[in-house]
Structure formats: C-alpha cells, structure tokens
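tool_call: predict_structure(chain=1)
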Amino acid sequence: MASDQHKIRERVKQLLEKPGNGNCADCGAADPEWASYTLGVFMCLSCSGLHKNIAQISKVKSVLLDPWSSSEVEFMESVGNNAAKAKYEKIVPAFYYTPTHKDCTLLREQWIRAKYERKEFQCVKRQEPYSAGYREGFLWKRGRDNGQFLSRKFILSEREGVLKYFNKHDAREPKAILKINTVNATFQPTKIGVNNGLQITYLKDNSTRNIFIYQEDGKEMVDWFNAIRAARYHYLEVAFPGASKSELLQKLTRNYIKEGYMEKTGPKHTEGFKKRWFTMDDRRLMYFKDPLDAYARGEVFIGSRENSYTVLPGLPPNIQGYHWQFGITIVTPDRKFLCACETEEDQKDWIAAFQTVINRPMQPQEYAVEAYFKHKP
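tool_result:
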C-alpha cells in the first residue's frame, strides 16, 4: 500500500515538470507544491490558503505530503495549469490587473475568486462593474485633518475623464475632481491600517495630492481599482495613438519604487536633520511629516545620469545635526539634497532605488516635468 502511494506521489511530482505547471497557476510563483484536485491546477502555498476560502469549488492538497488517489492524479493529468488558464482566463481585459506573488492578499484573493468562483473571464457581461466606463458608489475616505474615515460618494466617468467625490450624499458639486490623466492607485493595506486600503494620488497644480479610501467588500475595492485602470487605458489609447499595448499597460497604475523614513536637512545644510516619510514615485521623490498626509512637504525631481543627476553614499564633510549615521547625497544640476538612514541596509536599498531611476534615460515628456520643478516658486 505504501509503495502504491509512493508511485502515485511520484506521478504527481512528474506532472510539475509539464509546461505551465512549474509556476503557480494564480500568482506565477516558481516551484508550486500544492494543487487543487477539483480544478486541476498547481499552486504555491500562499495561494492554496486563498483557495480554502472557496472550498465549495476548490479542494487543495500538498503534492509532497498528502495522500493521493489514482483518480485524482488522472484528473490532474487531464487538466494542468495551461488548460485551466485557457478556460478560466479566456477573456481577461487588457487593463485588468493580474497579480503576482509580490502583491497584497486582497488582489490575489479577488483574482482567484474572479476566475474560479465568479467566472468573470468566461463571460464579458460579468466584467461590467469595471469595464462599463462609469462607476459610482460609497467609499470610506480618510479625513485630511482628523484622520477619521467618513463615507463619501465617488463617481468615475470615462466620458468626462474624471474621478470625483462628494462630501455630502446629496451635494450637487463635488468636493474634488481628479483628472484621470494624472490619477494613480495602489493598494496600501499596511500603511493605511485597513485590509482593503487603497491610496489614490493625483496632481493638483502639478503637486501630488493623496487620498486614502477603503471598502469592507474586497470585490468592490478591486472593481474600483480595475475601473480606474480601464479609464486610464482608454484615455492613454487616445493620448498616445502610436504607443503599443505593452507601453500603455505599464502606465495604467504603478506601485512606488520605495517608501520609508529618512532624515533630511534644508537647502542651506545648516538646519538640524528632521525625520520624514519619503516616497519614490517614478521620478518624484516626495517627503511627508506623516505617511498618511494629504500633501507632501516637498517634492524633488530625480532625472537621469546624462542630465547630471547622481546619488552618493555618505554626506559631505563638516555636516552636523543628523542622528542616523548612514548618509545619502542626492546631486541634481541645481543643488545637493542630504538625507540619512537609520541602518546600512536602508541606505543600500534607497541608493539602489535612486540608481534605477537615474540609470533610466528621460522620456521627452519628463523634460517638461523637470522644467516645472526648476521654475517652481
């Protein structure tokens, strides 16, 4: 009996060698060691935990540790990740965000539910919540001054090219209008302190403004996120008619290159260093007194090496007033920005983040942004 089970397990392990089965069917992580023997897919440990939330559809086992029956193995042989992908991801819209193993639990769980439970990518009508070009509803928005979350009505209109929200449910005029061409959205559950927390940024007078929202219903929140991506996609198709689909998809939404605390001093380099929350958003380095502030205290444009931007470890000699020992000097054509990190690891990570931006040649439209920063009052 034991030898039979050994043979069966070897058959299951051999299935992992087949094309498509060497990566998690849901997040793409390498070397999956779990499987859904009712769906016929192999997955990573993390996604197997999310499949347990749809136990009526998906029943999971460890490839290496659990006993398998011959009929279960035969079913796995008959399906596999590639065949399941062809069925469950038949019509995924181009703009729809397909999560990776690096993404938050909410995005990965809703992707799994959308595929197997709601079967959204087998029927276009099921995609209306995020593909209709218009969406409205109530979301909890964090107050700018008191930090309390209050219910606010939000409307997303592709036709108008805006996302807007209203402070009162019966208000005629919106409290704020966010133009789709500058909007970004990124899930930040840890930073915001709520599971389904989404950070939305937009430009107001070319300065970054943050709003923080959430909804208890995970599906609602991910539908809003993908509706924003859809609106951005259709705007960019018109704005950049010569761009390829892959170029447009890179511009829909973006996660920050890096965030965290550093100390900084002022332009004269004589002021005491102050602890600030820094966010590297594409070529904008912003700093905030608090991570959940609506507006940055300052923004710095980080250009490319060809345009005389560099980053150096350490601080210039004779600089005083810092508490953290691991300095960073950011050199721009106009001045030097001095920061200090708490640990050597933080310093290395920040320098690596700056290098990725500095080593990337500037795009034509980025020169206009740089010019604005140079002439900013």
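agent: The chain is about 30% helix and 25% strand. Proceeding to next step.
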